[in-house]
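Changelog note: in this version the structure field was regenerated for every chain. One regenerated record is shown below for reference.
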Amino acid sequence: MGVAPIADPATGICTIDAQPMVFHCNHYNRTLQNTIENCRHIDNRKILIHSAAEVAFLGLQAHFRENPGMKLEERLHYAEKLYSFCGFGLLPLVDTIKQAVGQNEFDLSTDSSHYGRALSLNFEKRRVAGEYFDLGFAIGALSAAFGEAFSGEMTKEAISLKGRQSTFHIYVGGEEFEYLFGLESGTPAYLEAAGMSSTIPERSLSGNIDEATIIGGVSQAPLFGNQYGLIPAFGVELTRHYADYYNLVSYRFEQQLAEALAKRPTLTDLLVYDYPALFYYKQYINLEGMSLSRTLLTEAGHICGFNTMGGIMSSEAWEGLVMPMVQEREDWLHGIIAVINALGWGVWRVIELVPNEKLVLRVWRPYESLGYLRWFGYSQHPLDYLVTGVAASIMNLLYEGDITEHPTLNLDYYYQINRSASSFWAEQTRCVAMGDDYSEVVVSRQQRG
């Protein structure tokens, strides 16, 4: 039985086994994980592993319930296929379980891991293995397939540590993941929020770009795992990832950091030393309390916008699909927004564009807000950090730099265009998770604040 994504072009949402899925690249995946992992004052390991176990368990449990005739081997095989299809790598569940019959603990090894490869790109040397998502997925998959809780731990053998394979020690039983079998998502806010049913308008500004043609072209691209379970595309390695994995790790990071700061306010000063990026942002933002976590999560969005959107606009696919429509510089922006609308991130609409000065962007069904509503209810503050970061980076790529000249997208260029005194900055002004019909960000060169 194959993996069957279900895409709804009207809402920009794609699901697999009722779990919303979004495309993201290795740079965003490692940056977001590093953001959470580098905070020593929260239970970062639990956030990363448990969030992965939960989304994998919920999706696979739903699939197995819809297909009650599946035997154990078929269930494990489907989990393997899903993992590979989504670009996470290879996870030999079937062969491992066959070799571990009768054992209550065993090793699970893989020689292909998206997260292992992504984390090995870190500039600093890792001291511990970082394939937390892989371990969490394995725990969730095995628990769903067997109908009983599994648990596990990392070992020192890891691709993220420059090794040839990543190995996890898996245990049958234990209480840590028993809660999975009572897990549910879907709060009253998720069902009633205005942004869940608000009318999505037609495009009012799209330049010379035929968005429907671009969405169709991207949707038909072979964006699924190759023989190594990886998706090399647009100069990066993509994953078709669980939207709620990103949401859970981001908002749990935010919540736990808020609790830590409430107990120990002096952490504010320490965090600036833990995260070098904050030395730059503190010039423009009052980095107190939760503005720290919001700044860090938005910075992950900046890096995503730079690498993923910049990579797409530098690719052969862009040259063949979008460039024939381009007649002016602003068509580059409309073109990349059209591509984004095929990534599962919701429906993005350009409301106002003043070349080299301002962008007003609205998003209907943004995956971040929907995930927050689904798991936590209404928010008291704007939290579409990915939208905010990506929107700013797109304007910086187009006007602070010049993506039309196909520059080398390296760290130096990132600093040059995203951290100059004149670079663009985005502020979120409306948020679906706060009860608005749509989320909105305003991007400008105005004084940061």
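Spot check on this record: The mean pLDDT is 91. Residues 192-225+244-444 form one domain.
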